[in-house]
Amino acid sequence: MDYIIAIDGPSGVGKSTIAKKLSKILKINYIDTGAMYRAIAFKLISNDIPLDNHEKIKEILKSTEFTYKANCLYMDGKKLGKEIRTDEISKGASLVSSYDYVREILVSIQRQIGMEESCVLDGRDVGTVIFPKADFKFYLTASSRERAKRRFLQSERKKGLSLEQVRESIEKRDYDDMNREASPLRKAKDAIEIDSTDKSLKETILEFLSHIRGEI
Protein backbone atom coordinates (compact mmCIF):
# COMPACT_ATOMS: atom_id res chain seq x y z
CA MET A 1 0.00 0.00 0.00
CA ASP A 2 1.40 3.37 -1.01
CA TYR A 3 1.03 6.20 1.48
CA ILE A 4 2.01 9.84 1.97
CA ILE A 5 3.46 11.40 5.12
CA ALA A 6 3.16 15.20 5.32
CA ILE A 7 5.29 17.16 7.79
CA ASP A 8 4.71 20.89 8.18
CA GLY A 9 6.19 23.34 10.62
CA PRO A 10 8.13 26.58 11.07
CA SER A 11 11.69 27.35 10.03
CA GLY A 12 14.53 25.66 11.88
CA VAL A 13 12.40 23.05 13.61
CA GLY A 14 14.15 20.07 12.00
CA LYS A 15 11.52 18.97 9.48
CA SER A 16 14.06 17.90 6.86
CA THR A 17 16.17 15.98 9.38
CA ILE A 18 13.14 14.09 10.65
CA ALA A 19 11.78 13.46 7.15
CA LYS A 20 15.12 12.07 5.94
CA LYS A 21 15.35 9.76 8.95
CA LEU A 22 11.80 8.50 8.41
CA SER A 23 12.57 7.98 4.73
CA LYS A 24 15.48 5.68 5.60
CA ILE A 25 13.68 3.81 8.37
CA LEU A 26 10.50 3.24 6.36
CA LYS A 27 12.36 2.80 3.04
CA ILE A 28 10.26 5.38 1.19
CA ASN A 29 11.07 8.44 -0.91
CA TYR A 30 11.83 11.83 0.61
CA ILE A 31 10.74 15.07 -1.07
CA ASP A 32 11.94 18.43 0.25
CA THR A 33 9.31 20.83 -1.09
CA GLY A 34 11.16 23.90 0.18
CA ALA A 35 14.23 22.95 -1.84
CA MET A 36 12.33 23.64 -5.05
CA TYR A 37 11.70 27.24 -4.04
CA ARG A 38 15.35 27.56 -3.08
CA ALA A 39 16.30 26.11 -6.46
CA ILE A 40 14.21 28.68 -8.33
CA ALA A 41 15.70 31.49 -6.25
CA PHE A 42 19.19 30.11 -6.95
CA LYS A 43 18.52 30.01 -10.69
CA LEU A 44 17.21 33.58 -10.71
CA ILE A 45 20.06 34.98 -8.63
CA SER A 46 22.69 33.06 -10.62
CA ASN A 47 21.33 34.59 -13.82
CA ASP A 48 21.10 38.12 -12.35
CA ILE A 49 17.33 38.15 -12.71
CA PRO A 50 15.62 40.51 -10.22
CA LEU A 51 13.33 38.65 -7.84
CA ASP A 52 10.51 41.04 -8.67
CA ASN A 53 10.73 40.56 -12.45
CA HIS A 54 7.58 38.48 -12.72
CA GLU A 55 7.67 37.97 -16.49
CA LYS A 56 11.20 36.56 -16.33
CA ILE A 57 10.32 34.38 -13.35
CA LYS A 58 7.38 32.91 -15.28
CA GLU A 59 9.71 32.16 -18.20
CA ILE A 60 12.18 30.45 -15.87
CA LEU A 61 9.43 28.34 -14.31
CA LYS A 62 8.20 27.15 -17.72
CA SER A 63 11.69 26.08 -18.80
CA THR A 64 12.80 24.43 -15.53
CA GLU A 65 12.66 20.67 -15.01
CA PHE A 66 12.71 19.08 -11.56
CA THR A 67 13.38 15.43 -10.75
CA TYR A 68 14.22 13.45 -7.62
CA LYS A 69 16.78 10.65 -7.68
CA ALA A 70 17.83 8.78 -4.55
CA ASN A 71 16.15 11.48 -2.44
CA CYS A 72 18.22 14.23 -4.08
CA LEU A 73 16.76 17.15 -6.03
CA TYR A 74 17.91 17.72 -9.60
CA MET A 75 17.15 20.89 -11.53
CA ASP A 76 17.61 20.74 -15.30
CA GLY A 77 19.62 17.56 -14.82
CA LYS A 78 22.01 19.01 -12.21
CA LYS A 79 22.11 17.73 -8.64
CA LEU A 80 21.64 20.51 -6.10
CA GLY A 81 23.26 20.69 -2.68
CA LYS A 82 24.85 23.31 -0.46
CA GLU A 83 24.58 26.02 -3.10
CA ILE A 84 20.86 26.40 -2.35
CA ARG A 85 21.37 26.53 1.44
CA THR A 86 22.97 29.97 1.77
CA ASP A 87 21.36 32.93 3.57
CA GLU A 88 20.98 34.80 0.28
CA ILE A 89 19.14 31.91 -1.34
CA SER A 90 17.01 31.39 1.77
CA LYS A 91 15.82 35.00 1.66
CA GLY A 92 15.21 34.74 -2.08
CA ALA A 93 13.20 31.55 -1.62
CA SER A 94 11.06 33.22 1.03
CA LEU A 95 10.22 35.98 -1.46
CA VAL A 96 9.50 33.87 -4.55
CA SER A 97 7.44 31.42 -2.50
CA SER A 98 5.06 34.28 -1.71
CA TYR A 99 4.06 34.57 -5.39
CA ASP A 100 0.82 32.73 -6.19
CA TYR A 101 1.89 31.69 -9.68
CA VAL A 102 5.17 30.22 -8.40
CA ARG A 103 3.41 28.14 -5.76
CA GLU A 104 0.77 26.99 -8.24
CA ILE A 105 3.35 25.58 -10.64
CA LEU A 106 5.62 24.02 -8.00
CA VAL A 107 2.71 22.51 -6.06
CA SER A 108 1.58 20.81 -9.27
CA ILE A 109 5.06 19.35 -9.77
CA GLN A 110 5.27 18.24 -6.13
CA ARG A 111 1.93 16.46 -6.39
CA GLN A 112 3.02 14.62 -9.51
CA ILE A 113 6.24 13.42 -7.87
CA GLY A 114 4.51 12.54 -4.60
CA MET A 115 1.85 10.42 -6.29
CA GLU A 116 4.39 8.09 -7.90
CA GLU A 117 4.98 5.97 -4.77
CA SER A 118 5.10 6.14 -0.97
CA CYS A 119 6.93 9.21 0.26
CA VAL A 120 7.46 11.66 3.09
CA LEU A 121 7.35 15.37 2.30
CA ASP A 122 8.22 18.33 4.48
CA GLY A 123 7.48 22.00 4.06
CA ARG A 124 5.07 24.67 5.22
CA ASP A 125 1.91 23.75 3.32
CA VAL A 126 2.22 20.03 2.59
CA GLY A 127 -0.74 18.93 4.70
CA THR A 128 -2.86 22.00 4.01
CA VAL A 129 -2.34 22.59 0.27
CA ILE A 130 -0.17 20.02 -1.52
CA PHE A 131 -1.62 16.85 0.01
CA PRO A 132 -4.60 17.81 2.20
CA LYS A 133 -5.67 14.14 2.13
CA ALA A 134 -2.26 12.74 3.07
CA ASP A 135 -2.41 9.46 5.00
CA PHE A 136 -0.34 10.90 7.86
CA LYS A 137 -0.21 14.60 8.67
CA PHE A 138 2.10 16.11 11.26
CA TYR A 139 2.88 19.59 12.50
CA LEU A 140 6.37 19.70 14.00
CA THR A 141 7.10 22.62 16.27
CA ALA A 142 9.53 23.89 18.92
CA SER A 143 9.97 27.17 20.74
CA SER A 144 11.76 29.95 18.86
CA ARG A 145 14.42 29.96 21.58
CA GLU A 146 15.12 26.25 21.09
CA ARG A 147 15.18 26.56 17.30
CA ALA A 148 17.55 29.52 17.54
CA LYS A 149 19.85 27.58 19.86
CA ARG A 150 20.00 24.62 17.46
CA ARG A 151 20.71 26.80 14.44
CA PHE A 152 23.27 28.86 16.36
CA LEU A 153 25.20 25.76 17.39
CA GLN A 154 24.99 24.24 13.91
CA SER A 155 26.18 27.15 11.80
CA GLU A 156 25.28 30.72 12.69
CA ARG A 157 27.88 31.03 15.46
CA LYS A 158 30.59 30.75 12.80
CA LYS A 159 29.17 33.83 11.06
CA GLY A 160 29.56 36.01 14.13
CA LEU A 161 25.85 36.26 14.86
CA SER A 162 24.59 36.28 18.43
CA LEU A 163 21.99 33.83 19.70
CA GLU A 164 19.50 36.68 20.06
CA GLN A 165 20.06 37.79 16.45
CA VAL A 166 19.38 34.26 15.25
CA ARG A 167 16.20 34.13 17.34
CA GLU A 168 14.99 37.45 15.94
CA SER A 169 15.61 36.20 12.39
CA ILE A 170 13.64 33.01 13.06
CA GLU A 171 10.73 34.89 14.60
CA LYS A 172 10.62 37.26 11.62
CA ARG A 173 10.55 34.28 9.25
CA ASP A 174 7.72 32.77 11.33
CA TYR A 175 5.72 35.98 11.05
CA ASP A 176 6.32 36.25 7.30
CA ASP A 177 5.39 32.61 6.68
CA MET A 178 2.24 32.78 8.79
CA ASN A 179 1.02 36.05 7.29
CA ARG A 180 1.75 35.68 3.59
CA GLU A 181 -1.26 35.60 1.27
CA ALA A 182 -0.20 32.51 -0.68
CA SER A 183 -0.44 29.29 1.36
CA PRO A 184 0.44 30.68 4.79
CA LEU A 185 2.02 28.39 7.35
CA ARG A 186 -0.64 26.85 9.56
CA LYS A 187 -1.41 23.56 11.21
CA ALA A 188 -3.93 21.39 9.38
CA LYS A 189 -6.98 20.68 11.53
CA ASP A 190 -6.36 16.93 11.42
CA ALA A 191 -2.57 17.09 11.82
CA ILE A 192 -0.84 15.55 14.82
CA GLU A 193 1.25 18.18 16.58
CA ILE A 194 4.65 17.14 17.88
CA ASP A 195 6.62 19.59 20.01
CA SER A 196 10.33 18.77 19.97
CA THR A 197 11.44 21.58 22.30
CA ASP A 198 12.47 19.24 25.11
CA LYS A 199 12.99 16.09 23.04
CA SER A 200 16.10 14.57 21.53
CA LEU A 201 16.16 13.68 17.84
CA LYS A 202 15.69 10.00 18.70
CA GLU A 203 12.72 10.72 20.97
CA THR A 204 11.09 12.85 18.28
CA ILE A 205 11.52 10.18 15.60
CA LEU A 206 10.10 7.52 17.91
CA GLU A 207 7.04 9.69 18.51
CA PHE A 208 6.49 10.01 14.76
CA LEU A 209 6.88 6.25 14.29
CA SER A 210 4.43 5.50 17.09
CA HIS A 211 1.72 7.18 15.01
CA ILE A 212 2.76 5.60 11.71
CA ARG A 213 3.79 2.00 12.24
CA GLY A 214 0.48 0.80 13.58
CA GLU A 215 -1.29 2.02 10.45
CA ILE A 216 0.88 0.71 7.59
Helix and strand content put the structural class at alpha/beta
Q: Count the helices. How many? A: 9
The total domain count is 2
Uncertain regions: pLDDT < 50 for 5+ in a row?
none
CATH class of the largest domain: Alpha Beta
Percent of residues in helices: 40-55%
CATH architecture classification of the largest domain = 3-Layer(aba) Sandwich
Largest sheet, strands/sense/barrel = 5 strands, parallel
Rg computed from alpha carbons, rounded to a whole number of angstroms: 17 Å
Per CATH, what is the topology of the largest domain?
A: Rossmann fold
Order of helices and strands: EHEHHEEEHHEHEHHEH
Major beta sheet, strand line-up: 2-6-1-7-8
The H-level CATH homologous superfamily of the largest domain, spelled out, is: P-loop containing nucleotide triphosphate hydrolases
How many beta-strand runs?
8
- Integer average pLDDT: 92
Shape estimate: globular
| Share in β-strands | 15-25%
For the terminal residues, how far apart are their CA atoms?
8 Å
What does this structure look like?
- This protein has helices at 15-26, 33-46, 54-63, 87-96, 100-114, 126-130, 144-154, 163-179, 201-212; strands at residues 4-8, 29-32, 66-69, 72-75, 78-79, 119-123, 136-141, 192-195.
- It is an alpha/beta fold and 216 residues long.
- The chain folds into two domains: 1-28 and 120-210, 3-Layer(aba) Sandwich (Rossmann fold), CATH 3.40.50; 34-116, Rossmann fold (3-Layer(aba) Sandwich), CATH 3.40.50.
- Strands 2-6-1-7-8 form a five-stranded parallel beta sheet, sandwiched between helices. A three-stranded antiparallel beta sheet has the order 3-4-5, covered by helices on one side.
- The longest helix is centred in the C-terminal third of the chain and has 17 residues, at 163-179.
- The model has no long low-confidence stretch (mean pLDDT 92).
